[in-house]
Amino acid sequence: MLSSALDRFHDALPETLPGSLLIKQGQPSQDAWHLSRDEEGLPAYRPAIVPLTLWQRHGDQEGLAPWLSSDTVLEPTLVDQLLRAPLIAIDFPAFTDGRGYTLARLLRERHGYEGEVRAIGDVLIDQLYYMTRCGFDALALRDDQPLEDALRWLKPFSVSYQPGVDVREALFERRLRETS
Amino acid sequence: MYRYDTYDQTLVDERVAQFRDQMERYLAGRLSDAEFLPLRLQNGLYIQRHAPMLRIAIPYGMLSSRQLRALAGITRRYDRGYGHFTTRQNLQLNWPRLEDVPDILAELAQVQMHAIQTSGNCIRNTTTDQFAGIAGDEVEDPRPWCELIRQWSTLHPEFAYLPRKFKIAVTGADHDRAAIQVHDIGVRLWHDDAGGLRAQVLAGGGMGRTPMLGDVVCEDLPWQHLLTYLEACVRVYNQFGRRDNKFKARIKILVKALGIEEYRRRVEEEWAHLKDGPQTLTEAAVESARSHFPEPPRRDVSEAAIATYQQLRHDDRAFARFVTNNVTDHIVPGYKAVTLSLKRREHAPGDVTADQMEAVADLADVFGFGELRVTHQQNLVLSDVPVDEIEALWHKLQELGMANPTVGTLNDIICCPGGDYCALANAVSIPIAQAIQERFDDLDYLYDLGPLDLNISGCMNACGHHHVGNIGILGVDKKGEEYYQISLGGNSHDNASLGKILGPSFYREDVPGVIDKVLKVYVEQRHEDEHFIDTYRRIGIKPFKEHVYA
Ligand code: SF4
């Protein structure tokens, strides 16, 4: 009994407190967005990132943004809605779940979404570089991740073979361009 | 072979720095075991039964003598002075110390090598035909394409956390020596009537617990689109492959569940957006990749020299045996490819000591333009030997113990490290291979049996490719005891097929006897020069079953 009451209490707390570990455009940063994982109802605070289904119901309200679960399929009607979102968060339920990388690339490269794409959930230092390459520009680190390490390893590589959201040119093209 | 430019070098150097820091954070307790796991796996590092194991990438099996010497030094300084060539054309170290691995990787980087993506749920080392570039039945040299795929897949930001491992194999010949039908993706390069290069793309093949042959996703992809098409194939898998059950996570399960038509539909839908995008290949890009694989500066070999070689083959029975089994025809008259057998009774299949690595590197310099290939049968190949030097090479190989004239025979066993080394094993595999080699060591009998693949895996993971052995042996565990299941009829060459289980498993000491019985049935039933696999296909498993379990 007590524990479920405690759970409810914790659920009611914003998971990402403003000022917790967020890296935006490569810089440590703070912002006002709270994250709510409550599927049932809107949180009291604003601005808030809420589950996609809730956002679809209340998306016209100011200060709400959706987060997508990793198994989201970007159907055309959903994409139309998402393109109007002020921010889109993509959840990593486990850092080994790689679907979020594809979702971010599709939002950026296929659908041209230009707002913030934020990684939430099991976001670890050693994933940040690939996330950035796939189009995430805001990285909400898991609470226990040392920010210093994260900043140090944001960009472990100065060159990449494949194009991504960051570099649009494959290395083989760049080589040809540079030698011609 | 492919030589790094400053970009490739920068990338592997930066990879070493990254992994060194990851290792430090792990040893300092700032990275948990679970979080370190995929990071170390994607740098080739396993934690095995006795010690860590490090799997070093040998991209599509191409190795230089300089690299082999460096590997010899590394095995001496950081390991116990030997290494193990695997069925995926890689090299494994069985005894490195965990904390030494960053230094090992740094030394590898100095000779343009790495261990990137040799393990983990990502795109692995691309494999190909060991006779690429020199085979008479080749329509397109697959190596430049493998290199393009290597670059595309290396540190691919979107595909580092796939549902499961992902293996690609490429062939450009009429006869498939790369076993493309049992890979997650298989690519066969071919020419259409107008001479245009196209790729047949297969998906959903694989071994492991649920072996399957790949289905054709695209029959005739124009070459320009190879990378974008592969990207679409892997993306669909990344999105829809199962992640809830490790044993159902390979692409073969997805392709099977969706059906090849639906999988193809999704790939094509995805590809419609990627096609003609920034990874579309151009003539110039492919030419540049090809320029890394020039013809070596071969010399003329005179008719007289060729005649002398033929005469020697005629006169010297031992030499003739070596040539028949271990020497392969070459597209250039006067040249041959020579296979160095790593199947020796004193060594586990695929094992080579540091001294032997150095000796082989010297041979490669003298006889093979400083290059070697690793085969998925766990042998080595010198791909460009003039016929008038084969006798000299043969003598050197005899001294080294690598001239066993048994390549392609029952004795040329493919075998995983098994229970002697591997933490996942149900049973040992190396002692089984040795027992079989010991029992069937009569060359005349081996030759009489003809080409025969015998493959052994120590568990379901099938690293020893037992499903595609004409005879396959799989270690199984029954209530803590080691048993061996035998299957017949697998084949990894053209017309690939998966073996069928013969029946209840056997005790370890009974295995050679069972193999003997299987061979007796074959010898009795075969038509003249019929190969084992063809006899099996004609008569089916029943006669074998009846005789073995009689
Ligand atoms: S088949 Fe099994 S026992 Fe053999 S190396 Fe692979 S995982 Fe280990």
Task: For this entry, give a set of tags.
heterodimer; A: 180 residues; alpha/beta; TIM Barrel; eight-stranded mixed β-sheet; globular; B: alpha+beta; Sulfite Reductase Hemoprotein, domain 1; Sulfite Reductase Hemoprotein, domain 2; 4 domains; five-stranded antiparallel β-sheet; 18 helices; binds iron/sulfur cluster
Provide an overview of this structure.
- The complex is a heterodimer of chains A (180) and B (550).
- Chain A has 180 residues and is α/β, with parallel strands linked by helices.
- Chain A has one domain: TIM Barrel.
- Chain A has seven helices and eight strands.
- The N terminus of chain A is likely disordered.
- Chain B is an alpha+beta fold and 550 residues long.
- Chain B folds into four domains: 93 residues, 2-Layer Sandwich (Alpha-Beta Plaits); 157 residues, 2-Layer Sandwich (Sulfite Reductase Hemoprotein, domain 1); 98 residues, Sulfite Reductase Hemoprotein, domain 2 (Alpha-Beta Complex); 135 residues, Sulfite Reductase Hemoprotein, domain 1.
- Helix content of chain B is 38%, strand content 17%.
- In chain B, the strands form four sheets. Chain B has a five-stranded antiparallel beta sheet with strand order 1-2-5-4-13. In chain B, strands 3-14-15-12-11 form a five-stranded antiparallel beta sheet.
- In chain B, helix 1 packs antiparallel against helix 4 and helix 16 crosses helix 18.
- The longest helix of chain B has 22 residues.
- Chain B is globular.
- Chain B starts with 5 loop residues before the first helix and ends with a helix.
- Iron/sulfur cluster binds next to loops of chain B.
